[in-house]
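Last lecture ended with a question: if I hand you only a sequence, what can you say about the shape of the protein? Today we answer it with a concrete record. The protein is Chromosome partition protein Smc. Below, first the input exactly as provided, then the predicted structure, then a couple of comments.
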Amino acid sequence: MNPLLSNLGYSLDPNTRIWLKADCESIAYNDGDEVENRIAAVISKAQDVSLFSPELKKHCVDWPSLYHLSASRANILRPFQNILPGSDVLEIGSGCGAITRYLGECGANVLALEGTLRRAVITRARTRDLNNVAVVCEQFHKFVGHEKFDVITLIGVLEYANLFMPGECPVQSMLQHVKSMLKPEGRLIIAIENQLGLKYFAGAPEDHHGQPLYGIEGRYKGKQPTTYGRHTLNNHLHQAGFIENEFFAPFPDYKLPLSIITQRGFSNQEFDPGMLVTHGVRADPQLPPHLFFSPELVWPVVLKNELGLDLANSFLIVAQTSKTKLSSSEILAYHYSTHRAKPFCKETLFLNTKKGNIEVQCKLLESDAVSDLKDQALSHSLQEKAVYIKGKLLSCDFIDIVVRDGWSIKEVSLYFKKYLFILASLTLKNKPINKINIDTLLPGNSIDLIPQNIIIAPNGKPSAIDQEWSWEYPIPAGFLIFRSVLMLNNIISCYGKAQSAFPNTLLGLFLALYKEMGYEVGEDKIHSYYELESLFQCKVAQDKTAVSNLSSPLRFSNWNYVITDYTKHIQSLEKAITDKDNHIKNLEHILEEADKHIHVLEDKDRHICNLEHMLKEKENQIEILKHVIVDKDRHIGNIEYMLEEKENHVATLEHVIADKDRHIGNIEYILEEKKNHVVTLEHVIADKDRHIGNIEYLLEEKKNHVVTLEHVIADKDRHIGNIEHLLEEKENYVATLEHVVADKDRHIGNIEHLLEEKENHVSPLEHVVADKDRHIENIEYMLVEKENHIETMARMVVDKDRHIENIEYMLVEKENHIETMARMVADKDRHIENIEYMLVEKENYIETMARMVVDKDRHIENIEYMLVEKENHIEAMARMVADKDRHIENIEYMLVENQNCFETIERMVADKEKHIRNLEILFSSKNKKILFLEQTIRSLKNKKIHQLTRRVRKKILRNPLKICSRSVFFDENWYLDHYPDVKAAGLDPVIHYVKYGAAEKRDPGPNFSTAFYIEENPEVERMRINPLVHFEVHFS
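The predicted structure:
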């Protein structure tokens, strides 16, 4: 790369290591001096400037620093990581080096082109340790060479073509210039905002002009940054000769993308990109607090109508001049988690396999990064492959509730009760809990079971996805509710107007929710949950600020905010008119003041003549003092020569002492290592003692266990006799249950009557909805009147402006005359100042000369005094050398004593190990005896059960349907709700359970687990007896 740049006339600046030409001119573009100087200082002071640098992450405190320092910037190029190593890459517009750093770390040969010198210097500082990166300060249209590149990037650059490219159509000029620099199968990668992005329809300001609706209304002018829609961009690329163009949609946009959807991802009927899109809306740092509508509700409608790519907020485009395909046809979407600590950052791919099903693949982005979770309560594991589950994330239900006007805390409460029920079903399958409260302890691996990680299949079955984290200790259910609300709040762009009144903060929402759920939770408890979540984020993201502040307000948006904004705009226009009137009065006052200033000029001329005469006298006095100083300098030179010889002798002695110190340090280091080894051996002995104690305790337990097993054998014989007696009592209980069934039938008739009354209550509610619609129409009419008032005020401002222009035109002539007079006054003032300055300098120079003479005398005395001190210092150094030698002898004696101590401890360790081996042999013999007794118990049990089998099976097979239907553990409604496939087929739940359900290990009700019963009684499955029937016959 260096010879290429040299041949093109560029030279490497040795200080900045930037390639540039002598006549280099920067383009007029930056983020402001304060911002860019701050970024430059942060990068230059950082020890670690890598992509995932924790130092740089701490400085992401506002939008500019986040944009220039965040590791998430690189996500836009991660889909092409496999083609970058070894490729020749031209990056046009490197900015502050965020993308350049990624390209360099991928192993590409990077030429980073930047149009401003300051930004080029920052890019070089960010890549200072990468020899495969060269940075050039040059405007793109002036960069002309014969070198061809495999990849050229325009990340956030194409929209600025109108400002910095020549030609009738600057966009075409830029694209054709890029094409001329690509290899035949080279690729152009473009990232740019979509002019028709959905967030801009929602009221987000246009990124380059800061005004809402600026782009979608087409208000761009000639020399302005301009964005384009998909079809316009595609036409520009085709006209420039790029015949193969593939569009991707990064979300929330290309600047800090979380997800990237391919064209195939939008068209595949089995894949739902809506989950990735809607859950990334709030991740856009540039999204305003109030929007015209809720994007979370609009995106599903857009995707359903196949407009996802057309209305994406940004585009990622790969353009080629050949027909070679770039991306794999299997990939439907990419998702990145790069807000974490470096060892946990990951990439998730959604692929359409050759078999036609969709697979989810996960991998760590930095597989060689070392995790700091060892020996801590939190553990991390990544499932590399999983089957894609088509369905709806549980978090979508929360979004549907809170983004609509009129939502209530009660609805949110019911949502979280449902969440707890699902949580229990996923984590406590074999240990059902009747009621969960905030202190109910759930397994530590449930910390990652937030609603965003639970998907509900079309049949209603919940499944856990993306489970990475596990806590060593059980977790209270109250904390999981707290954590879920925090995570859900982060994905809500705007809440609807709530029906329930509560303080508009996160803390207010928590207090209201816990109260509605029936839990007594105070602020102290919530703050304890907050500290626990902060601890979790500190381990995962190494950033406590990742947790939202409890006092932060919820983001609400509705028409009331729009009306308020219009009112404020009217007030600002009225204020502007008042300011214009005051400006006219100020201009008239300035005219009067300028006339008075002209008369001062004549006095200035007379003062100048006097100052010139005083200047000549001062110059004569200076010459005399110069001769005195020369004599003093010669005397000082002689004394300094003598001092230098003394200092050389002192330096020699200091080297001798330094050698002695190093020798002592080495001996002390060896001694410290010996001490540490002794401590380690003492710990080993203590561990061995504890291990021996544990083995002896286990032996005692084994003896007790043998006795217990002998008692169990006797109990089993007695239990078999009791079972035969229970069989007779069951037949009497069946008759009682038949009367209960008749009572249930009468109760069903009463419920059907209540349903009819509820239907009659629906019609008044429909009238209330109609009234709400009329209220909305009134508000819209008020908005139209407000807009008319604004237009009237705007016309008044225009009239005022024309009046001001007339007055300002009259003032121009006055100002020209004033400026001429002012220049004359300024010239006179400068001449006076120059003469006065020269006089002051002469006086200061004379005083300086006099001080120098005095200083020279004092300097001679100091040097003579220093000579005496140096001789004393030399004698002290010699004494220190002798002391060091004695200290070395003492340390060597201590080393010998420590060596004897080590040998004694090692002998003790060997004795302990022999004792442990003897105990282990004894432990093994006890185990064998226990196994023999357990086999004896099993053989006795099987013998007794075989005697009952024939009589029991005959009774069970007579009428299993009747036994199941009358069982208190069979709940027909629960069975149909829990297994919707049975309900959809119209099957009788009792018949289905007896014939098929038990074999499929389905549960007959919430309080009976088929799988658990079969596991505890395996003979039931071998005999092909229905588990519930077996239980009713033997144990009820």
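Comments.
1. The two ends are 86 Å apart (CA to CA).
2. Residues 943-949 have pLDDT under 50 and may be disordered.
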